[in-house]
Specification:
It is a single chain. The chain is mainly beta. The protein is built from no helices and 24 strands. It folds into 2 domains: 73 residues, no CATH class; 193 residues, Jelly Rolls, CATH 2.60.120. Strands 9, 11, 16, 17, 18, 20, 21 and 24 form an 8-stranded antiparallel sheet that branches. The N terminus is likely disordered.
């Protein structure tokens, strides 16, 4: 995660050492975790009254936490001051497009695709029609919007209209795939219809997330990813998204701050930085 928000995770074990009732052995394997310990001794270094917040990453062996901030193993003797407290992993963020905002991503040849997967997480309870989730300039195609609580997707006519409602205020994973001929819509890992339109391609113009044609979304979007392959061909269980060699754009919305004119980082490695238009709000994601 790009932004760390301490969140208490009681399930990470903190085992008492045999030598003392007030000592604790610390071995963590989660990434982006913080350790906060009121220690009188850390590792082999006696530091009376020592108290710190130390970032730790993957397990790398028994190295005193006070000496190397990026390690995940060591020992802490509290001197009767109580167990160390472990925070993490970091909470992520999502962007609330509150009906007056969107993200504009500059045009790129990376977005000129006939085989693709476009996917994201969304949470909304809107009952309004024609609220856009994304669209490419100048024509908007391909474009996706919510109408009557279901997804509408179009490259060229006919449009693909889903049947599974997503406007119930819960998080839903939405994906659309194109194999160069057939377009399939996926809601929460289940197929929600397919079409064979006259044209399937995506254009290299500006990508607008949360809006197109001044019909902005009222809802929250997280982890918007564009890939140059078909990622789904049958039912699947959606999970948190990541970047790989087939990712051409990936906006995790973990920036956590920024208003009109600010930027949203592209985690694909292709540097497609998004520009914030309007005044969205940052919210924590699951």
């Amino acid at each position: 995660m790009s932004v760390l928000v301490p969140t208490y995770i009681p399930s990470i074990p903190l085992d008492p050492q045999a030598s003392t009732d007030s000592g604790y052995s610390i071995a963590l394997s989660s990434s982006n975790v913080y350790l906060e310990a009121p220690c009188t001794e850390i590792g082999f270094s006696n530091q009376p009254g020592y108290s710190t917040t130390t970032p730790v990453d993957a397990f790398v062996g028994s190295i005193p936490l006070s000496h190397t901030p990026s390690v995940a193993s060591g020992s802490c003797t509290t001197g009767g001051g109580g167990a160390p407290t472990v925070y993490g992993p970091a909470a992520g963020y999502a962007l609330n497009f509150n009906g007056n905002s969107w993200i504009s991503v500059p045009a790129s040849d990376n977005f000129t695709l006939s085989i693709y997967t476009i996917e994201f997480w969304i949470k909304t309870n809107t009952t309004s029609g024609g609220q856009y989730l994304f669209g490419w300039d100048p024509s908007g195609d391909p474009q996706m919007y919510i109408g009557d609580g279901v997804i509408h997707f179009r490259t060229q006519f006919p449009s693909l209209v889903g049947t599974i409602p997503i406007n119930n205020g819960e998080w839903h994973h939405v994906a659309v795939t194109s194999d160069g001929t057939t377009i399939t819509l996926w809601i929460d890992g289940n197929s929600d219809g397919s079409i064979t339109p006259s044209e399937v391609g995506s254009y290299g113009g500006n990508l607008n997330i949360g809006n197109w044609g001044m019909l902005p979304l009222e809802g929250i979007i997280d982890e918007f990813r564009v890939s140059n392959k078909v990622r789904y061909t049958g039912p699947f269980t959606p999970t948190s998204l990541n970047s790989d060699g087939n990712t051409v754009g990936f906006w995790k919305f973990d920036d956590g701050s920024g208003g009109n004119g600010g930027s949203v980082i592209d985690s694909s490695g292709h540097s497609h930085t998004g520009i914030i238009e309007g005044d969205p709000t940052w919210v924590t994601s699951p």
